Amino acid sequence: MLSLRFDHAFADFRLQVDVRLPMQGVTAFFGPSGSGKTTLLRLIAGLEKPARGFLQVGTAVWQDGPQGLPTHQRRVGYVFQEARLFPHLSVAENLAYGQRRAGSPQGTQVDRARLLQMLGIEALLTRRPERLSGGEAQRVAIARALLTDPQILLMDEPLAALDAARKAEILPYLERLHAESQIPIIYVSHQFEEVARLADHLVLLEAGQVVASGPLSELTTRLDLPLAYRAEAEAIIDAQVVEHDTAFHLTRVAFAGGHLWLPLHSAPIGSLVRVRVRARDVSLTLAAQTGTSILNILPAVLTDLAEESDSQVMLGLDVGGTRFLSRVTRKSVSLLDLVPGKTVFAQIKGVAIVE
C-alpha cells in the first residue's frame, strides 16, 4: 500500500491530500492544470520542500512529519515531460547510467534485455539523443528510469511534449509496460484519453484537494463526479477475449455482465483487453429486441439518473455487476417511465465500442 498524507502550501496554493493507493498497476493523478498533480508527484520523490506529511511506500516509511528520506535515498524512477537524456552519451551509455544508480547493492533487478525488447529500443543503442524522435527518446528515458531499480515509477505527463503522431506511437509501449511490469506506476496527466487506456486506479484532483480516489471503472461512471458528464463519458471495462469471427471481422469478449461483440482485435483468445463503451452509444428498450442490426443487447437495471441539461439526462446502469452509462433525452425518460430500479435492455452497436 502507498499511503500519502500531505499538507503543503506555497504562494497562493495549498495541497491537502490523504489517500491510500495500491502498490500494483497504474495509478493516475488526473485533474486540470494547477490542481496539484505534479506537486504531489514531486512530494513523493522528495523534490518539493518544505513539506509536512506522511509517506509510506509498501512497508517503508519515507517521511513522517516535516523530515524524511533525502531524495537520493528514495527508490523512485522519474520520467519527465521531456526525456532529459544526457546529450553527450549514447542510448546505451544513458541506460548504463541508470543501472549504476540502481537502489540495491546487487544492481538492478530488471531484466535489461527484456526491458529493451518491451520498449522497442534494441536498435537504438548506438545513437545519440539528437538522432532520436520524441517518442524514441521518451522510451529510452522510461528504460533508464526502470534500470535504476525503483520501488515506484513516477511519470509526469510523459506524452505532453509529443505531437499526436508520436503519442500514438508510444501509447502501445506504455500499455505493454502496464501489462508486463511488476513495478507500480503513478501517472500524471490532464488528458483523459491517456488515463482511460493506462490506469487501473484514479485520483481526481482539483484546486489541491482530492475529489475522489478509487478504481478507474468506478469513478468514470459515478454520477456525483464530473467524469460522467464529459462529452465522451464512458464505461471502461477489462474483458477477456473468447472468440474471433474472422469471417465478419469481429471479436467477442466476456465480462462480468455478459458478452460484447466488437471490431476484430489482434489479441489472442484468453487475453485481457480494455473496452470503452460511451454513454452516447447506449440506447435503452423495455424489452429485448429481435430483427435488429445491433449485436449487443444486455439486460440491465437502472440505478440512478441526473439531468445534464434541459434536454439530456445521464443514466447509471447495472449490467450484471458492471456499471454502464447511457445518455438519453428527457423525453425518452418520460416516455419509458425510467426510474431507479427499473429493468431495461441496453443496446450497444459493436462498431461503436472503443478498444
Tell me, rounded to a whole number, the average pLDDT: 93
CATH class of the largest domain equals Alpha Beta
* CATH topology call of the largest domain: Rossmann fold
Distance between the termini: 30 Å
**CATH architectural type of the largest domain:** 3-Layer(aba) Sandwich
Using only CA atoms, what is the Rg?
23 Å
Instruction: Describe the strand arrangement of the main beta sheet, using strand numbers.
Output: 6-7-8-3-9-10
Main sheet? 6 strands, mixed
Number of DSSP helices?
8
Kindly give the count of domains: 2
Residues in helices, as a percent range:
10-25%
Counting DSSP E segments of at least 2 residues, the number of strands comes to: 19
Q: How would you sum up the global shape?
A: globular
Which structural class matches the secondary elements?
alpha+beta
**H/E element string?**
EEEHEEEHHHEHEHEEHEEEEEEEEHE
CATH superfamily of the largest domain: P-loop containing nucleotide triphosphate hydrolases
Report strand %: 35-45%
Low-confidence region ranges: none
Considering the chains and any ligands shown, give keywords for the structure.
alpha+beta, 8 helices, five-stranded antiparallel beta sheet, 37% strand, globular, 355 residues, six-stranded mixed beta sheet, single chain, 2 domains, OB fold (Dihydrolipoamide Acetyltransferase, E2P), Rossmann fold
Q: In a few lines, what is going on in this structure?
A:
With 355 residues, the chain is an alpha+beta fold. Helix content is 21%, strand content 37%. A six-stranded mixed beta sheet has the order 6-7-8-3-9-10, with helices on both faces. The protein has a five-stranded antiparallel beta sheet with strand order 15-19-16-17-18. Strands 2-1-4-5 form a four-stranded antiparallel beta sheet, with helices on one face.
